[in-house]
Amino acid sequence: MKANVIKVIDDSTVVINKGQNDGIRPEDRFVIYEEKEEITDPNTGENLGKLQLTKGTAKVQSIQERMSVLVSDKTRTISKSIKSVFTLNIYQPIETYEESQMQPFEREVEVNDIARVINRN
To answer: What predicted TM-score, i.e. pTM, was given to this entire model?
Structure first.
């Protein structure tokens, strides 16, 4: 299934023109890409199709009847720590925790870019 990006919310969130009425499911993953010019094999003259430049991959964040919000599915884990505090003549230990941060798409996504489902069974 193919859809078009109809709104770019930020560098990791877009809206597409397909939704529940079109069969979009919460578990769907998408590749977002831009179609460029037709490419011809210089040796044979054969048309090889349009060049597709991938901008990133995304998962469904929310689905409405006729549109869906997609977010980048690339994340990175960052270790953060809370420094020790000296209270009542006792040092409290440093606390460390991990936080997952969503990464932006690999390239800037624009309105009319294409989003195609890549994991449908």
So the answer is: 0.78
Other CB atoms within 10 Å distance of the CB of residue 13: 18
Q: Is 58 exposed, middle or buried (0-12, 13-18, 19+ CB in 10 A)?
A: buried
2-74+102-117: CATH number: 2.40.10.410
Which residues on adjacent β-strands are paired with residue 97?
A: 80
Question: With left for phi above 0 and alpha for psi between -120 and 50, is residue 58 left, alpha or beta?
Answer: beta
C-beta atoms surrounding 30 within 10 Å:
26
Confidence at residue 101, expressed as pLDDT on a 0 to 100 scale: 81
> Minimal CA–CA distance to 70: which of 104, 99, 100?
104
